[in-house]
Specification:
Blueprint lengths: L1 H8 L3 H4 L3 H20 L1 E8 L6 H9 L17 E7 L2 E7 L6 H6 L5 H11 L3 E7 L11 H9 L5 E6 L7 H11 L6 H5 L15 E4 L2 E4 L5 E6 L8 H11 L1 E2 L14 H16 L9 E10 L2 E10 L2 H8 L4 H18 L3 E9 H7 L1
Parallel strand pairs: 1-3, 1-4, 4-5, 5-8, 11-12
Antiparallel strand pairs: 1-9, 2-3, 6-7, 10-11
Helix pairs in contact: 4-10, 11-13
Organism: Glossina brevipalpis
InterPro entries: G_ERA_dom, GTP-bd, GTPase_Era-like, KH_dom-like_a/b, KH_sf_prok-type, P-loop_NTPase, Small_GTP-bd
GO molecular function: GTP binding; ribosomal small subunit binding; rRNA binding
């Protein structure tokens, strides 16, 4: 039997020592797996930009799953997060990074070292850099921040695309076209710009436009973007074009992650990050940055997630502020986090938030 299989199907000798009945099944399963790997494609994308440009919102809406924490305040993302999106034979891996900041900002706001290293790690593992640029801010939209340009210069061999976000804030087509020309150093042809076509004319390569400010020349544009996209991530506008471009840019190679995986982050960390993000939304000024958040309980039972988080406040006054009158604000925060977690995990969630203060903890010691 073994000799017959060897002659008819040219099965390797290593398989011939096994049970012949299981032999064909195992062999063809291995062959099918090999063929599947040969047709798989993937692309690693580093998402960079200054704080609050909409990087996390862009990823969440593009892949239609809430993986990256978002809020209305800066520095919601405090470490690199991976969002994994698999469709048919293509897997996209997004590296969501903290907003690019200067060394002085890291010291001033006592930011973690991840603000310095996360974007480098992302770029080193990326096939493509996507720059998210907020065009809703009239004071900053006409120039790329120097931290963005410095990052692009560090990785000149990586292809890059410009994603102009919050485009719905621009009421004039002329403003939009002027911004495209300025930010790309006018590497669009007139016809392309007027039609708002996303392709950059790669045959034109120029030095970045210098801006003289305070007697110092500094660059405000990048000439080597391979594509420009106009999107409003929060409402999902323009994302299909980006999606199709990334799928088409994927490289033929085996996937790094299983198709059912959507992040490499532990579920416990996702829960804590979701709470921190909503506290940023509901609490004023610097208060949420001074809170400590811990996971008290996590369990997955019968496809339902049970979790509880404790928020430790500096003072009892802050604790009362979080809870609100008759615990009304705390209930609102809990409901929002629960909704976020359902979007993240796609499962029923039983979730609670408890609060305490350091003053209470001292009394109880």
């Amino acid at each position: 039997m073994r000799l017959l299989l060897n002659k008819l199907f040219n099965i390797p000798k290593s398989f011939l020592l096994q049970n012949p009945c299981r032999l064909l099944s195992k062999y063809y399963h291995a062959q099918a797996k090999s063929v599947e790997n040969e047709t798989q494609k993937s692309l690693n994308i580093a998402i960079i930009g200054i704080p609050n440009a909409g990087k996390s919102t862009f990823i969440n809406h593009l892949i239609n799953r809430r993986i990256c924490p978002t809020s209305c305040k800066v520095h919601t993302t405090r470490k690199a997060n991976k969002a994994i999106y698999t469709t048919e034979q293509t897997q996209l891996v997004f590296y969501d990074t903290p907003g690019l900041v200067t060394e002085s900002e890291i010291k001033k706001y006592k930011l973690e070292g991840s603000f310095r290293s996360a974007y480098r790690h992302a770029a080193q593992n990326a096939d493509l850099i996507a720059v998210i640029h907020d065009v809703s801010n009239a004071f900053t939209r006409k120039e790329l921040h120097f931290t963005v340009i410095d990052t692009l210069k560090m990785y000149p061999r990586l292809p890059s695309i410009l994603i102009m976000n919050k485009i719905d804030a621009l009421k004039s087509k002329r403003i939009t076209l002027d911004l495209i020309r300025t930010l790309t150093n006018n590497t669009l042809s007139s016809e392309q710009a007027n039609k708002r076509v996303n392709k950059i004319n790669k045959s034109v390569v120029k030095e970045s436009i210098p801006l003289k400010k305070g007697g110092i020349n500094r660059e405000v544009s990048w000439s080597n973007f391979s594509q420009v996209f106009l999107v409003s991530a929060a409402i999902g506008s323009g994302l299909n074009d980006v999606h199709d471009y990334l799928i088409a840019s994927a490289k033929l190679r085996p996937w790094e992650y299983k198709p059912e995986e959507f992040t490499d982050e532990a579920p416990e960390n996702l829960i804590v990050d979701s709470v921190k993000a909503r506290l940023l939304d509901y609490l004023p000024q610097e208060i949420p940055y001074n809170l400590e958040t811990y996971l008290e309980y996590y369990s997955l039972e019968n496809d339902t997630i049970y979790a509880s988080v404790e928020v430790v406040c500096p003072t009892q006054r802050i604790e009362r502020l979080i809870c609100g009158e008759s615990n009304g604000r705390l209930r609102q925060i809990t409901e929002r986090v629960t909704s976020d977690l359902i979007e993240t995990f796609g499962k029923p969630i039983s979730f609670t938030i408890a609060t305490t203060s350091k003053e209470k903890q001292k009394i109880n010691q």
